[in-house]
Specification:
It is a single chain. By secondary structure, the protein is of the alpha+beta class. The chain folds into two domains: 166 residues, Glutaredoxin (3-Layer(aba) Sandwich); 47 residues, Antioxidant, Horf6, Chain A, domain2 (Antioxidant, Horf6, Chain A, domain 2, 2-Layer Sandwich), CATH 3.30.1020.10. The chain contains seven helices and ten strands. The strands form three sheets. Strands 5-4-3-6-7 form a five-stranded mixed beta sheet. The N and C termini lie far apart (50 Å).
């Protein structure tokens, strides 16, 4: 049974697995964490490593943008709480960046296994760079995985978070490379009448009746 848990990987649309964990801001139960907010939970391979330091500093430096999107951050690595605290303090002393969001101390790898952050062909003892976008109902909406040696793109993480929220709010689809202020894709017609209405619609930019874009603010 343990080997099955080791390889478990939640999917888009699943409820985010619940857990209790010790973090740098205190003990949390995930199902009770940040009610009414989105959560971006991300893993990193290890404390006191160069790529991870750039990444977590990036999350911290742009935390205000996540706040604006009603989103809380949670980090994770398979390190002790003492290592986390020492690393947070070291980063603050050396760079002036304060990692104020909770970082899970996952020494027993319980959360990493629960979320499929351990991928044996990459490493059996270090979490890959996973990012989970979890909505206020605690449903997993988007997952990103990066290998140990390649850092994430913070612009893309913020872009897709904004896109998910904008799509939910306006019931539209999001085209390639979309960013706030760009046109969105309106849902395609599902009946002959809706198709005729779409063809006659002059408010959309139509490639054809099934592909139409519209500006929303």
């Amino acid at each position: 049974m343990e080997s099955n848990n080791f390889y478990s990987m939640p999917r888009i649309g699943d409820q985010a697995p619940d857990f209790e964990a010790v973090t740098t801001t205190g003990k949390i139960k995930f199902s009770d964490f940040a009610p009414g907010k989105w959560v971006v939970m991300f893993s990193h391979p290890a404390d006191f490593t160069p790529v991870c330091t750039t990444e977590l500093s990036g999350f911290a430096q742009r935390k205000g943008e996540f706040d604006d999107l009603n989103t809380e951050l949670i980090g994770l690595s398979i390190d002790s709480i003492h290592s986390h605290l020492a690393w947070v303090n070291n980063v603050r002393e050396k760079t002036g960046v304060y990692l104020s969001f909770p970082i899970i101390a996952d020494l027993d790898m319980k959360v990493a296994k629960l979320y499929g952050m351990l991928q044996p062909n990459e490493s059996e003892t270090a979490a890959v760079r996973a990012v989970f976008f979890i909505d206020p109902t605690r449903k997993i909406r988007l997952i990103m995985y990066y290998p140990l040696n390649v850092g994430r793109n913070m612009d893309e993480i913020l872009r897709v978070l904004d896109a998910l929220q904008f799509s939910d709010a306006h019931k539209v689809a999001i085209p390639l490379n979309w960013k706030r202020g760009d046109k969105v894709i309106v849902p395609p017609p599902k009946t002959l009448q809706e198709m005729d209405d779409r063809i006659a619609d002059t408010t959309c930019e139509k490639v054809d009746f099934y592909l139409a874009k519209k500006m929303l603010v």
